[in-house]
Amino acid sequence: MPSHTEVPTEDLDRLMAGTHWNPRSILGPQHSTIDGTPCLVIRAWFPYAAYVDVIEAPSPGPLLRMTRLHEAGLFEAVVPDDIAVPLYRFRVTQHDGTIIDQHDPYAFPPLLTNFELHLFAEGTFYKAYDTVGAHIRTIEQVTGVHFVVWAPNATRVSVVGDFNRWDGRCHPMTNRGASGLWELFLPDLPEHTLYKYEIRTRAHDTLLVKADPYAQAGELRPRTASIVRDLSRYTWNDRDWMTARAGWNPLTAPLSIYEVHVGSWMRVPEEGNRWLTYQELAQKLIPYAKDLGYTHLELMPVTEHPFDGSWGYQATGYFAATSRYGPPEDFMAFVDAAHQAGLGIIMDWAPAHFPDDPHGLATFDGTHLYDHADPRLGYHPDWHSRIFNYDRAEVRSFLLNSALFWLDKYHIDGLRVDAVASMLYLDYGRKPGEWIPNEFGGNENIGAVSLLKELNILVHRDFPGAITIAEESTSWPGVSRPTYTGGLGFTLKWNMGWMHDMLDYFSLDPIHRRFHQDRITFGLLYAFTENFVLALSHDEVVHGKRTLLDKMPGDLWQRFANLRLLYGYHFSHPGKKMLFMGGEFGQWREWNHDTSLDWHLCDLEPHRGLQRLIRDLNHLYRTEPALHEADFDWSGFEWIDFSDTDNSVIVYLRKSPASDASVVCVCNLTPVPRHGYRIGVPKAGQYRELINTDAFVYGGSNVGNFGGVHSTPIPLHNLPHSLTLTLPPLAVLLLKCEPA
Length: 740
Fold this sequence. Notes:
With 740 residues, this protein is of the alpha+beta class. The longest helix has 19 residues, at 605-623.
């Protein structure tokens, strides 16, 4: 039998130079001829091999020594026609004597189907995360890793890792044509393999080494390699939660969110101030939030990110739970434990921009693949980062897949979408001349609008009970209205206007509040135009803004009283609730992502009192339908009196349309007790105090009404009955009628 064939010089040169776009045409089993005689040859590329043998399969016979065609490492063997393809193996003897047995990756056919290529190209491959990236597969009883990456402008893409000395010449991938996808099945690679993609660019013929955009795990910074992981092995124990969630209506149910930065909620100072792991967080954070009565935890981004100071909002791993706190299955177990404890998990998700770290998405294949080359479209001046190209089908698919992935694989209950305003407006953060109008001459980012609508349609269609929350700070109409009515389709929207008005108002010395009562009542003019979350978030306690407690005016007692007053108004005002960690016990020091919260403050009675108030407010909010059932229309709210500016007192009703029950809410916004203060009420009966934020147990002065007061049949405020109350200083009273 002839000993070897001739490889075209051009192909050989490209292979050795690492520029061949279709290595499968040379490597692996090839039907060829030698001196006119048909034959089957196997070619292999092993730059570090001294010699290579072919081992027949399934029954190993004699070793067949391969011929070295080129000193750079190209080997060939002419083999019998009946050799088992692709089950034969190579026995590679390296120059140091190391012997490695492995299957031939180029003996396995391409695995991507034409239908998958079509869906990917049109941007409707909504489960691409099960195919693109690195996935453990068993093909012809051989287990390995199937790699798929999108790099349409590359001249060559290779998988590199410890298994091939990070040498891009060893495992070039197969180009799948117009789709821009490259793929390669590497048999025998195990889970936990470190890898990247080496990409040769078209424009400058330079080499880039990139982490996998679809990787489901990554190394701990500053290392940047991707890690092969199989997430299907985790066994979930939250069926009851997921079943109940599918029938849950977030608009009428209580929703009280505790916002957490996982890396700084609590640390271990005696061990170098290290982070808590996902396992430790499950043991500490979940019981803590559950005890305080929250319904959900909102985690600032846990997607992989290179810079701690970005708080996770500059992501490089849109499918990878950050390795800072443990492996992926530990984060799965954390979510699982939360569900079993009755807590939902909302995750911050940042599709507005991405960093320009060299291992990330920026100039991924030598071009502005994921963003725009024109800085007027592709550069974010506020965050010095890159803006996604929302008009490109493959980029839209990438972002949609990321969102759906967390809901699917990690059972996440909701996504809080970061910086939506910056996505919606082409001129966001830009001066005149620094942006390009859309095709109609406007400043709306039409691609981003379309993407957000598609996101919300898919989430609400495919994951019943899951929610989406928009951080959107402008007056864009219909953010939380259905897409079929012209809205963006979010479940909820942060009420940024309410937050700013409240913090401005409560920072005023009470003596001046009579002149600014409109700030505390203005929010009701638009309270039902969207499905609002009243968010007191991390953004309000950093960068010199001071913590909520430190914003409050007055002496020490008044500061705590003002904060209790704010919380009472927060929980009784229409809208779902959110509070950032530390606010529940009165953190004095601004939030610092590098340190723990000041948990020692909880040893001090005023701070413990705040914690008790948050716990009781959450409990009341969850058990009293009037406080949560109708947050988004006038059927759940009624003013009793908002005109008493001289005394800085406002009074209103929260109502339950289903039960006709109501809660009377009275806010005394000054430190002056009001005795004999009369308000109108709709029903006759004994009005029991549900909450008095001035109660002694919360750190207050204990001024009140001895637990309740009986109505009198004297009309007031256009209501048939009235109450005569003692209003405690800087406090909220919540009262409920108990008819005789």
